[in-house]
Specification:
By secondary structure, the chain is of the alpha/beta class. The protein has 14 helices and eleven strands. Strands 2-1-3-10-4-11 form a six-stranded mixed sheet, with helices on both faces. A five-stranded mixed sheet has the order 7-6-8-5-9, with helices on both faces. The longest helix is centred in the N-terminal third of the chain and has 32 residues.
């Protein structure tokens, strides 16, 4: 039957209605597409993406970061952070190339030679490296640990501090943090030692920490001023703690390990440095919240490094003597610098600019933690 005018109008209205519905449904999609291209009133022009790779999913600017540390409990941040993957987790695919060192001067050589980017290291080598490069090579970017250094002696030969005169006492390496501290202490007794040869009223024997326990057992040294776990190894072999270095400090705090970075790497890859610091801050928080688990983790890393874990009689007394901290305790680095000058290991240094805590304080602030001070030695 032929369509009436009314019927034709009804069909037209229905067709128009369907087209209107489809258009209405497509409109939000079109607006969204335009906005994603930077058009429209809701677009944000030149909005910077977060440098926090773990949050943004963005790859960092370096494919690899080379991190140095010692197989010492005073480097617990590195040991635990690497063992638990807490540092790697923040790097979003950037690979960590770990490198183990015995003492600070050799690590500084690696940093100066371009084979290391970031290092866990003591204050004295940091000072030496900064001064020798005339302030052009490294920056201290964070703290890591305080304490964990002891003078351990053979109790049959040495019963009081005065008995050290004429004895052979080991330190890890000439110019390292313990070496400087021991030479300074010798000076406070009014005794003299040649800083180069180690000969004098006390014989300072520079010995690899790995060798020191055997040297002690064989009697070729009478004691050692050393970090943990070497100190507790000596105690387990019959030694006696004659002095804990914390006793020499007014607040019983002093930097034993801080984190340094090549200035070149910091300039070229600040996003990687920030990610590493996010990892170390989270590692330190985890260590302090889980001391027993952290101790086991550090021991597992030491086992991976040396082939066997520390005995409980070594690690149990050693672990609580170390304070883990993000604070670089910069004022104590000033003091240790003065000690190195007095010991005639370095000339009076200009340490202005040795610290750059900008990224650390950014990470701490984001984590709701208090910022830390560079004691007036920050980069300008």
């Amino acid at each position: 039957m032929p369509a009436t005018a009314t019927t034709r109008q009804t069909r037209t209205n229905r067709s128009t209605l369907r087209r209107s519905v489809v258009a209405a449904a497509a409109l939000p999609l079109l607006i969204g597409a335009l906005a994603s291209c930077g058009y429209g009133s809701e677009a944000k022009k030149d909005e910077p993406k977060s440098a926090d790779s773990a949050d943004s999913g963005k790859k960092l600017s370096a494919a690899e970061v080379r991190i140095g540390y010692f197989p010492n409990l005073t480097h617990a941040t590195a040991l635990v952070g690497l063992q638990e993957g807490l540092i790697e987790k923040e790097l979003n695919g950037t690979k960590i190339k770990p490198q183990s060192f015995n003492a600070g001067p050799s690590e500084i050589e690696a940093l100066n030679g371009g084979s290391l980017d970031i290092g866990f290291i003591g204050p004295s080598p940091s000072i030496n490296g900064y001064v020798k490069s005339k302030g052009s090579n490294l920056r201290i970017i964070s703290g890591s640990a305080s304490g964990g250094v002891k003078l351990v002696v053979n109790p049959d030969k040495i019963k009081t501090l005065d008995d050290l005169k004429g004895k052979k006492i080991a330190t890890p390496q000439k110019g390292n943090t313990q070496d400087v501290a021991f030479l300074n202490w010798i000076g406070t007794k009014g005794w003299t030692v040649d800083p180069e040869s180690g000969k004098g009223d006390v014989s300072v024997v520079r010995t690899d920490n790995k060798v020191t326990p055997d040297a002690f057992k064989q009697g070729s040294i009478d004691g050692a001023w050393v970090p943990e776990p070497t100190a507790s190894k000596l105690v387990s072999d019959g030694g006696s703690v004659l002095l804990d270095e914390t006793a020499l400090w007014p607040d019983k705090k002093f930097v034993i390990t801080n984190i340094i970075v090549s200035q070149k790497f910091l300039k070229e890859h600040p996003d990687v440095v920030e990610a590493v610091l996010k990892g170390t801050v989270k590692t330190n928080e985890w260590i302090n919240a889980n001391p027993d688990k952290a101790k086991a983790s550090a021991n597992a890393k030491l086992e991976a490094e040396g082939g066997k874990p520390l005995d409980a009689k070594v690690i149990d007394p050693a672990w609580p003597s170390i304070a883990i901290t993000d604070d670089p305790l910069a004022s104590t680095l000033k003091t240790q610098s003065e000690w190195a000058v007095k010991a005639k290991l370095i000339e009076q240094p200009d340490l202005a600019g040795i610290y750059d805590l900008t990224l650390l304080n950014k990470v701490l602030k984001a984590a709701g933690k208090p910022e830390v001070s560079d004691a007036g030695l920050g980069a300008k």
